[in-house]
Amino acid sequence: MAEVTELDLAWEGSAARLRLPETLELPAIGAAWRHLLPQLGKAKRLVIEAKALASLDTAGAVLLLRLEQAAPTEWQGLAEGPAKAMLERCRTALEAANPPPPPRPLPPVAALGRAVVRTGADYLSRIGFLGEVVVTFLGLFRRPARLRLGELLRHLDEAGLRAFGLTVLLGTLIGIILAFQSSIPMRQFGAEIFIPNLVGISLLRELGPLMAAIILAGRTGSAYAAELGTMVVNEEVDALGIIGISPLAWLVLPRLVAAVLVMPVLALLMDLTGLIGMGVVMASLGFPPIAVIHQLQTAVKLGDLAGGLLKAAVFGGAIGFVGCRAGLAAGRGPRAVGDAATSAVVAGIVAIVVLDGIFAILFYRLGW
């Protein structure tokens, strides 16, 4: 007789007899799992004595069922009770249909075609969503009451007013950094007086709208996606459609209009604080404020400010559109909201950069 943990295994010629203990649970079968199955591989018959068996967990039941598969098995003394019920439940579960095997990977050409089709379908979905938003917005001229003023004011507060502190901080730092970095090469030519020209044009035309858009994408775009994604997961958006309320008019338009309205304000605040930061650096370099203001008046035109604010409004519309679309397209799993927020931030920043490049080419062609 050979003892394997608490299980007694005896050989009678080519037949094996296994006596089970009173308790057959996970702590007692660790060694048995490693040693019993190899030993029973040569057995032509297995007798399992289960008279003393009173307690059995799933690990013990799976072990006994594996022993049944190793050799023709005869049970002795297995009485009705919790142990037998556990064994039958595990047997039923193991005999159930196996999950289908994973699909085979497609050939490279087929995989490329599927990726192209999916990408095209995604872009068509975005275009369709844009068309629905435009149609819903135009419908406001016929029924202005569909735009909820209270919801619009709430989003203006969250996207604009609560972002003022961060915008002021970043704008001031950007102005200081640009002024200090510009002073290094300018000093070699005695041209430090032209630092306001460089910083003013950079801020008003490019950096002001771009940095404000990045702030809006990080704060507000992700918030839009998270809010709408949570509503999709909780089936609140479906409920609005069932009762006859357009989710676009009820949820998307207030957020989109708020993003468009608030972006020029954030860009203007970024410009002003950046110029103030630059002025502080110029004062530290020994230039009076009147000289800095004179240089700004000479270099910066009203068209520079207008072009920057126009870009900011377009950036706001793109961020609101991307954030709302990412939220409404969220899945139903536990990671859906997080994935939607991440997608909104990434896609929003990419859209900002692409639009900024388009504006740069357009302004260059127009001589603006």
Automatic annotation (TrEMBL):
InterPro entries: Permease_MalE (IPR030802). It comes from the Bacteria. Keywords: Membrane, Transmembrane, Transmembrane helix. The chain crosses the membrane at residues 123-141, 161-180, 248-269, 275-296, 308-328, 340-364. Pfam families: MlaE. This is ABC transporter permease.
